[in-house]
From TrEMBL, chain A:
The keyword Oxidoreductase is assigned to this record: yes
Transmembrane residue ranges: none
A Pfam entry, by short name: MoCoBD_2
Leader peptide range in chain numbering: none
Alphabetical list of InterPro entries matching this protein: Ald_Oxase/Xan_DH_a/b (IPR000674), Ald_Oxase/Xan_DH_a/b_sf (IPR036856), Ald_Oxase/xanthine_DH-like (IPR016208), AldOxase/xan_DH_MoCoBD1 (IPR008274), AldOxase/xan_DH_MoCoBD2 (IPR046867), AldOxase/xan_DH_Mopterin-bd_sf (IPR037165)
Keyword set includes Oxidoreductase: yes
Protein name: Xanthine dehydrogenase
SUPFAM superfamilies: CO dehydrogenase molybdoprotein N-domain-like, Molybdenum cofactor-binding domain
Upper lineage: Bacteria, Bacillati, Actinomycetota, Actinomycetes, Micromonosporales
Coiled coil feature spans: none
Domain called Aldehyde oxidase/xanthine dehydrogenase a/b hammerhead: residue spans: 22-126
Source organism (scientific name): Plantactinospora endophytica
Keywords: Molybdenum, Oxidoreductase
TrEMBL record, chain B:
Pfam families: Fer2, Fer2_2
Coiled coil: none
Transmembrane spans: none
Protein source organism: Plantactinospora endophytica
InterPro entries named in the record: 2Fe-2S-bd (IPR002888), 2Fe-2S-bd_dom_sf (IPR036884), 2Fe-2S_ferredoxin-like_sf (IPR036010), 2Fe-2S_ferredoxin-type (IPR001041), 2Fe2S_fd_BS (IPR006058), Aldehyde_Oxdr_Iron-Sulfur (IPR052914), Beta-grasp_dom_sf (IPR012675)
Gene3D superfamilies: 3.10.20.30, [2Fe-2S]-binding domain
Protein name: Aldehyde dehydrogenase iron-sulfur subunit
Highest taxon above the source species: Bacteria
Residue intervals of the 2Fe-2S ferredoxin-type domain: 8-84
C-alpha cells in the first residue's frame, strides 16, 4: 500500500477490514469494563398521560438488581439541553414507548426480568397520533431542517399553473420509516474521579461530549466519548440519543460501569424515525413537457416534545427549471415520538413525490421521461439565481440511459409480458446538497518517518477512515503504510457528525490542509524530515469553508429500474437497478460503489417493503421488529449497478469531492414505482407498493 | 424470600478451546459468548432470530446463537467468527469479503461469514432450497440465486448484498476444505 500521490481514486480495501472480518472490531458494548453492570430500558405503555405510581418492589427483589431508575430517584440533568434528552426527570408521558425507567443489574438476564416485573400506573389522556391533511395542530414552522426557509415562492405559481397547457395535481403519501441500523443504539459508560467515559454507538462523538458535559454540568474535558466502530446509523445516531445519557446516569447511580443496549423493538420510537409525509405536487407544462409552474406542498409530523421539521420540498427548489414556483411545509404536533434524521432527510421522501409526478407528466405529455428531465434542466439555481458549482444531471441521465439500454423503450404501460411476469422499466432523477462544513484536524510527523493524522471523524460504515487516509497520503506525498489515521474519539480535534454526506468534503478538506501544512513546514524548515521531537500541525477549516464562493452546490444522479410483477400474485421483483451519479471526485471507488448501491437498495426497500403500521388506538406502531418491519434482504437484490460520470468540481471545494452517502437513495423509490407503473399500468402514489394493492387490479389469465 | 436464580454448569468447546461455565439458565449462547467469554465477534442485532448477526456454527451447522439457550448447547462444539482465521491467516471467505467490500459497518459481517460457511456446506451436501429447480437432484452448484436465497436470513442494512454474493461465489471456488478442518 505505498504509492505516493496517487492514493485518491484507487480501489482501496477498508483499513479496518481485517478487524471486521475477524470479529475483533469492537462496537459500543463490547469494550472490556471491570465490574460492568447491565441496563435495561422500560417503556411507557400509554400514549399520553402521567405516571401516578411506580411499584419497584418485585423488580428490586429480583436477584442481582442494583437499581431501578425512575423520575423519582434519577440523577438530575441540567435542563438547558434538548427536552428529548431530559430522561427520567418528570412523570409526564408524551408518547407510547417513551423511556420511563431503567433497570440496572448484575446480568442482562436479571435486568430484563426486573424490567418485566416493574409496575407503573398511569393517568391517561386522549391522544392524537394520526397525521392528516386537516389536523388541527398544523402550523408553519419558522424554518425547516436544518435551516431552510419554510416556504418559498418565485414568479406567480397560481397564474402560471392556470395558464399551463398540461396540468398535473397529485398527492403522494409515505409512511413512517425506521432507520434500523444493524447495531442497536448502545453505550457503555463509566465514571472515574468525576470524569465520564462513554463508548457510544454514535455518528459523531464531539456532539456527545458537549451534550453530556451540559447535561451533567461537567467541563467538556471531563467527558470523553468514543465511537471507533459503529454498526450503521443512517441518521439515527447523528445527534446524541438517549443511550449514552441513560448509561451515564445508571453508572453514576450504581458506581460501576454500565452497558446499555436498546433492544431491536425499543428502536421503534425513542431513537427517531422518518416522519410520515403527505405531499401534493402540482406541475404545469406546455405540450412538450417544458415546465411553467411547480408547486410542492409537504405535510409532516413532529412530537409534542420537540419540533422536527423534515425539509421534504427543498429539493424541488433546485432540481428543475420553471419560471413560476412555490414550496411549502406544514407540521402537525402529535402524541408520537419525535421524528429524526434518516438517510437523505427531505430529499429522499420529497423525490418520491416529485419524481413520480415527473413520470406522470411525461405520460401526460407523451414525452420520454429521460427527455422530459433533459428539457427541464437548468444552468442556474432556479430559485437562488446563482450558478451551480457543477451540474451534471444531463450527463447522468444520458449515461444511465445508454448503459441501461433505455433508447428502445416502448412507453406503453402494461404492454410487456413474459410468462407470468409483467415487465416494465422506470427512471428518476436525483439531487443532494454538497455541503462543506469546517473541521479541525492535526497532522504529525514522527522522527521515524511515520505520520499521524487525527480528527474526530466517524466511520459508520461509509469508508471514511480509509478515504481520509487516502487524502492524507496524497497530501503528505509519502507511502501509505507510513500514515496512520485516528478517528472516532472526542479527544481528537473536533469535527462534525457523519451526516449530510459531508464527511469526505468537510473532514477531507481539514485533513488535506493539515497534511499540506505539515508537509510545507517539514520541507521549509527541516529539509523534509521530522525533527527529533517530531512536528505537529493543527488547523481548522471553518473560515476557509465559510469563505467559499456562493454557488449552488449539489450532487446529481439518475436511476433506472426494471420491475417484474407476477400477474397472478402481484409479487414484485426488481431484476435490475442501475444508477449513474455525479458526485465530484471519487476518492475510493470501492467504498463509493458500496455506498451508492446501499442507498439504491434502501430505495427498493422503501418502495416495496418498509412501512411503520400505526395502530391509532394505542398511538404506536404494531410492527416493531425485523420480522414484521421488512427491510430488503439478500434475495430481493439481483443485478444492481452504480456508476459515476467524471466530475472534478474544484469550484465546489478544493479537493473536488462531493458526498455520496445519500444521493443513492434519492429518487430510487420513485424509479421503482415508475417501473411498476410501466409494467402494469397501475400508478401507486402511496408507499409501499405491495401485492395486496396490486393483486385485484392485474389482468387475469 | 425470592428463590435464587437457577444456574447450571455448561461445557462448551469454542473454536477448539474447552470452557467450563456456570451460567444462569436464561443465558443465551450469544450472551454466553459475548458477556462470559469476551468473544464479541457474534453480534446482537435483534435477539429474536430475525437478523442473523449472531450466527455461529454449532456442531457444524449454522445457528442463530440468540435463539439457543447456552444450557441447551452443553457439550456442543462451537465455531464463531474468531475461529475462522488460522495462525493469523484469513479464511478464504474472510479475504474475499475484504476484497469484494462485502460489508460496510461490519456489524452483520460475523454472522454473514459463519452463515456462508454453513450454507456452503449445506450446498455441498446437496440440500435443496426454494430456488432449487429439481428438489430430488439437488442444487446445481454455488449459483447466485442459491446464495441469495440461502443468505437471506442474514440482513445487511448497509446492503452489501451483491458484494456478499460475489465474495461467497469466489470463496467457494478456492475453499475446498471440509467444515471439519476449520479447527
Amino acid at each position: 500500500m505505498s504509492a505516493p500521490a496517487t492514493a485518491i481514486g484507487r480501489e482501496q480495501p477498508r483499513l479496518e477490514g481485517r478487524a471486521k472480518v475477524t470479529g475483533t472490531a469492537r462496537y459500543a458494548v463490547e469494550h472490556p469494563a471491570d465490574g460492568v453492570a447491565y441496563g435495561w430500558a422500560v417503556q411507557a405503555s400509554v400514549a399520553k398521560g402521567r405516571i401516578v405510581r411506580i411499584d419497584t418492589g418485585d423488580a428490586e427483589r429480583e436477584p442481582g438488581v442494583l437499581a431501578v431508575l425512575t423520575h423519582e430517584n434519577s440523577p438530575r440533568l441540567h435542563p438547558a439541553e434538548s427536552p428529548e434528552l431530559l430522561l427520567l426527570q418528570q412523570p409526564r408521558v408524551r408518547y407510547r414507548g417513551e423511556i420511563v425507567a431503567l433497570v440496572v443489574a448484575e446480568s442482562l438476564e436479571s435486568a430484563r426480568e426486573a424490567a418485566r416485573l416493574l409496575r407503573i400506573d398511569y393517568d391517561t389522556e386522549p391522544h392524537s397520533s394520526v397525521l392528516t391533511e386537516h389536523h388541527p395542530s398544523l402550523y408553519k414552522p419558522d424554518h425547516v431542517n436544518p435551516s431552510f426557509p419554510t416556504d418559498t415562492s418565485v414568479g406567480d405559481f397560481d397564474s402560471g399553473y392556470a395558464a399551463a397547457e398540461v396540468r398535473l395535481d397529485q398527492t403522494y403519501r409515505t409512511p413512517a420509516y425506521h432507520n434500523n441500523p444493524m447495531e442497536p443504539h448502545a453505550a457503555t459508560a463509566s465514571w472515574t474521579d468525576g470524569r465520564l467515559l462513554v463508548h457510544d454507538s454514535s455518528q459523531g462523538t464531539t456532539d456527545v461530549q458537549v451534550v453530556l458535559g451540559r447535561l451533567f454540568e461537567l467541563p467538556a474535558e471531563a467527558v470523553r466519548a468514543i465511537a471507533e466502530h459503529v454498526g450503521g446509523g443512517f441518521g439515527s445516531k447523528g445527534t446524541t440519543r438517549c443511550t449514552p445519557v441513560l448509561a451515564a446516569m445508571a453508572a453514576r447511580q450504581v458506581g460501576r460501569p454500565v452497558r446499555l443496549a436498546l433492544t431491536r423493538q425499543q428502536l421503534f420510537g425513542p431513537i427517531g424515525y422518518r416522519t410520515p409525509i403527505i405531499q401534493r405536487i402540482r406541475l404545469g407544462a406546455d405540450a412538450d413537457g417544458r415546465l411553467a409552474a411547480i408547486c410542492h406542498d409537504a405535510i409532516s409530523q413532529s412530537s409534542t416534545i420537540e419540533e422536527f421539521a423534515e425539509q421534504t420540498a427543498v429539493l424541488t427548489r433546485a432540481l428543475y427549471a420553471a419560471p413560476h414556483r412555490r414550496t411549502t411545509h406544514r407540521l402537525a404536533r402529535l402524541d408520537v415520538p419525535t421524528p429524526s434524521w434518516m438517510r437523505a432527510p427531505g430529499e429522499c421522501p420529497g423525490s418520491f413525490a416529485l419524481e413520480s409526478a415527473m413520470d406522470e407528466l411525461a405520460v401526460a405529455c407523451g414525452v420520454d421521461p429521460v427527455e422530459l428531465r433533459l428539457r427541464n434542466d437548468t444552468e442556474v439555481d432556479p430559485e437562488e439565481g446563482v450558478p451551480f458549482s457543477s451540474r451534471k444531471l444531463a450527463a447522468c441521465l444520458r449515461d444511465g440511459a445508454r448503459r441501461f439500454g433505455w433508447a428502445d423503450r416502448d412507453p406503453a404501460p402494461g404492454a410487456r409480458r413474459r410468462g407470468r411476469w409483467l415487465i416494465g422499466t422506470g427512471m428518476a432523477g436525483a439531487i443532494y446538497p454538497a455541503r462543506i462544513p469546517g473541521a479541525s484536524a492535526e497532522a504529525a510527523a514522527g522522527p521515524d518517518g511515520t505520520y499521524q493524522v487525527r480528527i474526530n471523524a466517524t466511520d459508520i460504515g461509509t469508508g471514511a477512515r480509509t478515504a481520509l487516509w487516502q487524502i492524507a497520503t496524497d497530501a503528505l506525498g509519502v507511502p501509505g503504510d507510513r500514515v496512520a489515521v485516528s478517528i472516532g474519539d472526542s479527544d481528537l480535534p473536533p469535527a462534525l457528525v457523519a451526516g449530510g454526506s459531508t464527511g469526505t468534503a468537510g473532514w477531507g478538506l481539514a485533513v488535506h490542509r493539515a497534511c499540506q501544512e505539515l508537509r510545507r513546514q517539514l520541507d521549509d524548515r527541516y529539509a523534509g524530515t521530522a525533527p527529533p521531537d517530531g512536528l505537529a500541525v493543527r488547523l481548522d477549516t471553518t473560515d476557509e469553508a465559510a469563505a467559499l464562493p456562493r454557488l449552488a452546490r449539489y450532487a446529481f444522479g439518475a436511476h433506472f429500474v426494471e420491475a417484474r410483477v407476477d400477474v397472478d400474485s402481484g409479487e414484485i421483483r426488481i431484476p435490475r437497478m442501475l444508477g449513474v451519479f455525479a458526485t465530484g471526485r471519487v476518492v475510493n471507488p470501492s467504498t463509493a460503489r458500496s455506498q451508492l448501491i446501499g442507498g439504491m437498495t434502501m430505495g427498493i426497500s422503501m418502495a416495496l417493503h418498509e412501512e411503520g403500521l400505526l395502530d391509532h388506538r394505542f398511538g404506536d406502531w404494531v410492527n416493531r421488529d425485523l420480522a414484521t418491519y421488512h427491510v430488503t434482504a439478500c434475495a430481493d437484490v439481483e443485478r444492481i449497478e452504480a456508476y459515476w460520470v467524471p466530475e472534478e468540481d474544484d469550484e465546489g471545494n478544493p479537493l473536488g469531492t462531493k458526498g455520496l452517502g445519500e444521493i443513492g437513495i434519492v429518487g430510487s423509490a420513485a424509479a421503482v414505482a415508475n417501473a411498476v407503473y410501466h409494467a402494469t399500468g397501475l400508478r401507486f402514489r402511496t408507499l409501499p407498493i405491495q401485492l395486496d394493492k396490486l393483486v385485484d387490479r392485474l389482468p387475469t389469465g | 424470600m425470592t428463590e435464587p436464580p437457577h444456574r447450571s454448569p455448561v461445557r462448551l468447546s469454542v473454536n477448539g478451546r474447552p470452557y467450563e461455565l456456570d451460567l444462569d439458565n436464561r443465558t443465551t449462547l450469544l450472551d454466553a459468548l459475548r458477556e462470559h467469554l469476551a468473544l464479541t465477534g457474534a453480534k446482537k442485532g435483534c435477539d429474536h432470530g430475525q437478523c442473523g448477526s449472531c450466527t455461529v456454527l454449532l456442531d457444524g451447522r449454522r445457528v442463530k446463537s440468540c435463539l439457543v439457550f447456552a444450557v441447551a448447547a452443553d457439550g456442543g462444539d462451537l465455531v464463531s467468527v474468531e475461529g475462522l482465521a488460522e495462525d493469523g491467516q484469513l479464511h478464504p471467505l474472510q479475504s474475499c469479503f475484504v476484497e469484494h467490500d462485502a460489508f460496510q459497518c461490519g456489524y452483520c459481517t460475523s454472522g454473514q461469514l459463519c452463515s456462508a460457511l454453513g450454507m456452503l456446506d449445506e450446498l455441498r451436501r446437496g440440500w435443496p432450497s426454494v430456488v432449487t429447480a429439481d428438489l430430488a437432484a439437488g442444487p446445481n452448484g454455488v449459483t447466485d440465486p442459491e446464495i441469495r436465497e440461502r443468505m437471506s436470513g442474514n440482513l445487511c442494512r448497509c446492503a452489501a448484498y451483491p458484494h456478499i454474493v460475489s465474495a461467497i461465489r469466489e470463496a467457494a471456488t478456492v475453499e475446498t476444505r471440509p467444515m471439519g478442518s476449520l479447527r
